[in-house]
Design goal:
- The complex is a heterodimer of chains A (about 625) and B (about 350).
- By secondary structure, chain A is of the alpha/beta class.
- Chain A is about 35% helix and about 20% strand.
- By secondary structure, chain B is of the alpha/beta class.
- Helices cover about 35% and strands about 20% of the residues of chain B.
- In chain B, strand 5 (about 135) and strand 6 (about 140) form a beta hairpin.
- The N and C termini of chain B lie far apart (about 70 Å).
- The chains are: A alpha/beta (about 625), B alpha/beta (about 350).
- At the A-B interface, helix 1, strand 9, helix 9, helix 11 and helix 12 of A face strand 1, strand 2, helix 3, helix 5 and helix 12 of B.
- The structure holds iron/sulfur cluster (SF4).
- Iron/sulfur cluster binds near residues 22, 23, 26, 28 and 211 of chain B.
Chain lengths: ~625, ~350
């Protein structure tokens, strides 16, 4: 696909994992992102893992400032961003030091040697230059003076040296694009589009990219060049999507499918803010976004909009969910529809704001005062966020209840190719507002009963502006049917039961749990959320190890699929990998009295397939050889 | 219900069927009656006011029971959050009249943040702060408007924190409409509600309200009929700020600070002419600080009423502008808006 003569024949590869790492100012996220896009256009299956430093402006050249982007590309269906990278592009010593341990032994390292001066070595704590003291002996190392070559390539252009140096990530991208036979045009076109307003930047980045590409082609340094052929996938139109964008589009889609205006109340928080940004761009869908003064106001405003008849959302991460708890309780009591989206991150407290974790399950299930049941759903892949946003909205509207949608930092920022759904195939989730009286008083006169329930246990949604149905809702306990304030003990007991029964009844309205696999393995892996891809990888690793397992993935965390107990019956081992210290496993043990075992990880990163496989071996008493 | 009132010009039309549960003698009764009469008056005048397009939103506290007693739509929410919840409702539904009701604890303590932000955004809300300088519903703790030294159950040795100056808070937050009235004067309350209702944007009304159980007589020195002439300063836009049985006293400004003076001493020319429309909120702020206790002449009426961009209108104008520029959103187009590729 390149337009220059190829010096080196490309060797086919079935898959490769590349990790770009550098200082946060080096543009590694952008580099990774562009490589990913070019790979998608080349038809590869792919998965990505961006890793940002927690500090916005960590001191340059330090370990704290390292920003990395891992991409896994393949000619077949893959599930994770890859366990260990095969190739590391390190733009400075800090990147090398912090990332080297992840590389496969014998892996390839491409270094920007211009950054390996004494000061930079010192900043990250290298006492000796790792390039010459044996540290890198086990790897294939390519030392490339990227900064110098970039400056050289741009010297005839009208750019200052400092600005020219900033294009060095495009040099790296050009080199890697050559090594892996990526098409050049998509990146060159993108540069034009992205930086079009600033011709000097377009020229510098273009020159750097081409220089990197040419460098691979002409220097003797690179004896090998690879090609990862397209993965065979179903026909259709694809796009690359990350979880936050998919969630945003799902919210917009839900508004269209419900025929309701969308209202988002939100307060900036990592890693959820991108949803607020994305929705703010789509006002022509009738989307109103409200950046509130705090998390509580964000939830409150959403609830107010819900009372007014909008499809209301609030988006946040764990600390924000804690703050919104009282409002969610009020929504449970008022029985109004709203969706709370929790893009989970490492906790407690500020924890690891830029790293992934799935430790808010208990918070979502139980984190409110009083008896306040609500549905909880969890997305399992970046593109699945789209569908789960619609599903959460459907449940909220139909059952007049707050619903929590759990995603996480890994899904939020991870990218995968998405076979775009046909818009006409999406479900109609519209509901009717109540516009008529629905009861009679003692004298037989028509009245409105705001807490009269339908066959699903849902109460009427009568919005302001509807004449004759004026009513008051509040957080005080309400009398059955009339909704008037009631302190009657037996009424409180009845209302508590009715609210619970409504949520429990949703089990009849969600998909059954499905076991994937032969159905006769002795081990079942039960997962939820973003572990889906890692578990798929683990199943393949286990098969290579000689162990066949079944797997089951839960998307509806509350209420649970009604056949879940049955689906788990008969397995000798039930293993539950989670990016927390074992929350869902406790739910399963508590609900079903099964001897489920936990595989826990809280390192801010998704599981590798091998980690889960090893956990399964430990539970089964088996090993990589397959037998005990 | 055989006694349903069908005539919107009657108070009963605006009265819900719920029993009012405030303590007998509570100032809240007078405020509720004024609000019901006000709506009846609006209807009588042919104003397009209606039950179905009116919503009262409240937080928690005695005052916050208010929505239950108005036969309109209503939300009785959580402590402090009413301004935020009402902001969402008003933003979603610009066609509604949204009133917010709360007490001093509700809106200045736990909900202070939401109050100031609703005011600075200039959301089209009519915010009523029932200030009784005490926590009533929780049975008598000092509040953020209680005077220093207040002895309550939680301050047996007297409170040591400074109270808020409510008008100053509103002025500081950039409120475009600021007024004060009190629970003993229905006519004044109705007039104040009317001015707020006519205002486009956030309107803040402080209502001196007597809690006869936990803080009885807090405002007696000012609002009792016999005291009014000498203690209440009625603000009228464009007129010199004078008061007293013979209008013998007035307000002067000393280096920006307002103080009371005898006209005989300072001369009429020194008396401040009230300007509620001044873009700068300094005068409102100064007039709010006239009385630092509840024993001195205190200003009532409209401190400030200025035009400013209203938040909800701004939101909707952006929606319209984007819709015009881009055309109505299309889901298929949105999903295909990134780089796409086809697989045969
Ligand atoms: S406690 Fe005070 S404010 Fe509350 S209802 Fe009784 S008198 Fe009124």
């Amino acid at each position: 696909m390149t337009d220059t003569a190829d010096r080196v024949e490309a060797t086919p590869l079935d898959r490769v994992v590349i990790r770009f790492a550098g200082d946060s100012g080096d543009g590694m996220q952008l580099t990774g992102d562009r490589f990913t896009s070019a790979s998608a256009i080349a038809g590869n299956d792919l998965a990505t893992l961006p890793e940002f430093p927690a500090e916005i402006r960590a001191p340059q050249g330090t370990l704290a400032g390292v920003s990395a982007f891992q991409v896994h590309i393949s000619d077949h269906d893959i599930h994770t961003p890859g366990d260990a990278p095969d190739v590391l592009v390190a733009m400075n010593p800090a990147a090398l030091m912090s990332q080297l341990g992840r590389l496969v032994s014998g892996g390839t390292i491409i270094l920007n040697t211009d950054a390996f001066d004494e000061r930079n070595l010192e900043k990250c704590g290298y006492e000796a230059d790792p390039r010459s003291n044996g540290t890198l002996d086990d790897y294939t190392v390519h030392e490339v003076p990227m900064t110098m070559l970039t400056v050289e390539a741009t010297k005839d252009l009208d750019v200052k040296k400092r600005d020219a140096e900033r294009s060095k990530n495009f040099f790296a991208l050009g080199l890697i694009s050559w090594m892996y036979s990526r098409p050049e045009d998509p990146t060159l076109d993108w540069i034009k589009e992205k930086f079009g307003k600033n011709q000097a930047v377009v020229d510098a980045n273009t020159a750097a990219f081409k220089a990197g590409h040419a460098y691979g082609e002409t220097t003797e340094m690179f004896a090998n060049r690879y090609e990862v052929p397209a993965a065979p996938v179903g026909p259709g139109t694809y796009t690359n999507i990350n979880g936050n964008t998919a969630t945003s589009w799902g919210m917009i889609a839900a508004g269209q499918l419900a025929k309701l205006p969308v209202f988002l109340g939100s307060y900036p928080i990592t890693p959820a803010s991108d949803i607020l940004h994305e929705l703010s761009r789509h006002k022509n869908f009738g989307v109103r976004t409200f950046q509130a003064e705090d998390e509580i106001a964000a939830a409150g405003a959403a609830l107010g909009a819900a009372f007014g008849g909008h499809l209301a959302y609030t988006t946040t991460s764990g600390p924000g969910v804690a703050l919104k708890g009282e409002t969610i309780g009020l929504a449970t009591s008022m029985e109004l529809p709203m969706v709370i989206i929790d893009v989970q991150r490492g906790g407690p407290s500020t924890g690891l704001p830029t790293k992934t974790e799935a430790s808010d399950l208990f918070l979502a299930l139980y984190g409110r005062h009083g008896e306040s049941p609500l549905p909880v759903v969890a997305a399992y892949s970046p593109s699945n966020c789209f569908h789960m946003a619609i599903e959460a909205s459907r449940l909220a509207l139909k059952y007049r209840t707050p619903v929590i949608l759990l995603t996480d930092g890994y899904l939020a920022n991870g990218v995968e190719p998405w076979l775009l759904p046909d818009v006409d195939s999406l479900p109609d989730i519209s509901v009717d507002f109540t516009t008529e009286h629905n009861g009679v008083d003692a004298d037989g006169d028509p009245i409105f009963l705001p807490y009269l329930r339908d066959e699903h246990g849902s109460r009427p949604w009568a919005i302001p502006g509807t004449a004759g149905l004026e009513h008051r809702v509040g957080g005080l306990e309400k009398a059955d049917k009339t909704g008037n304030v009631s302190y009657d003990p037996s009424n409180h007991s009845l209302m508590t039961d009715l609210r619970q029964a409504k949520i429990d009844g949703i089990a009849d309205d969600i998909p059954l749990a499905e076991v994937e696999g032969s159905g006769d393995a002795d081990t079942l892996i039960v997962g939820w959320g973003s572990t889906h891809g890692s578990i798929s990888a683990a199943v393949e690793v286990l098969a290579e190890d000689g162990v066949a397992v079944d797997r089951l993935h839960v998307t509806h965390m509350a209420p649970l699929p009604k056949n879940l107990g049955e689906a788990m019956a008969g397995y000798e081992h039930i293993v539950v990998p989670e990016l927390n210290k074992g929350q869902f496993v406790k739910v399963l043990r508590g609900e079903f009295l099964v001897d489920a075992k936990s595989i826990a990880k809280v390192e801010g990163l998704p599981f590798t397939g091998r980690e889960i496989a090893d956990g399964v071996h430990a539970v089964r008493g088996s090993s990589q050889g397959g037998v005990a | 219900m055989t006694d349903v009132v069908l005539d919107p010009t009657k108070r009963g039309y605006w009265t819900s069927d719920q029993d009012v549960r405030w303590c007998p003698g509570c100032g809240d009764y007078g405020i509720l009656a004024a609000m019901q009469f006000f709506h009846a008056e609006l209807a009588a005048e042919g104003s397009p006011v209606s039950k179905e397009n009116t919503v009262f939103v409240s937080g928690i506290g005695c005052a916050a029971r208010f929505p239950y007693y108005m036969d309109t739509y209503g939300m009785h929410t959580i402590h402090g959050r009413a301004p935020a919840i009402a902001t969402g409702l008003a933003t979603a539904r610009p066609d509604l009249d949204v009133w917010v009701v709360g007490g001093d604890g509700d809106m200045l303590s736990i909900g202070g943040n939401h109050l100031i932000h609703a005011l600075r955004r200039n959301v089209n809300l009519k915010i009523l702060l029932f200030n009784n300088q005490i926590y009533g519903l929780t049975k008598g703790q000092y509040s953020p408007t209680s005077e220093v030294g207040k002895v309550t159950k939680s301050t047996p040795n007297g409170s040591i924190d400074n109270p808020f100056n409510t008008i100053g808070v509103a002025a500081g937050a950039g409120a475009t409409f600021i007024a004060r009235t009190h629970d003993l004067d229905r006519k004044h309350m109705i007039e104040t509600f009317r001015r707020a209702h006519e205002h486009k944007g956030a309107a803040f009304i402080e209502i001196y309200q007597n809690c006869n159980v936990f803080n009885d007589g807090a405002y007696d020195a000012i609002t009792k009929r016999a005291a009014r002439d000498e203690m209440m300063i009625n603000l009228v836009h464009g007129e010199p700020i004078t008061f007293g049985a013979d209008k013998q006293r007035g307000v002067v400004l000393d280096n920006g600070a307002a103080r009371v003076a005898d006209i005989a001493d300072v001369g009429m020319d020194a008396i401040v002419v009230h300007d509620a429309h001044a873009p700068d909120p300094s005068l409102a702020f100064a007039l709010g600080h006239l009385a630092s206790d509840r024993q001195s002449p205190t200003a009532f009426g409209v401190f400030r009423a200025v035009d400013g961009p209203e938040y909800v209108e701004g939101v909707n104008n952006q929606l319209l502008a984007v819709n015009e520029a881009k055309g109505p959103g299309d889901l298929h187009t949105l999903l295909h808006s990134g780089a796409t590729w086809d697989v045969a």
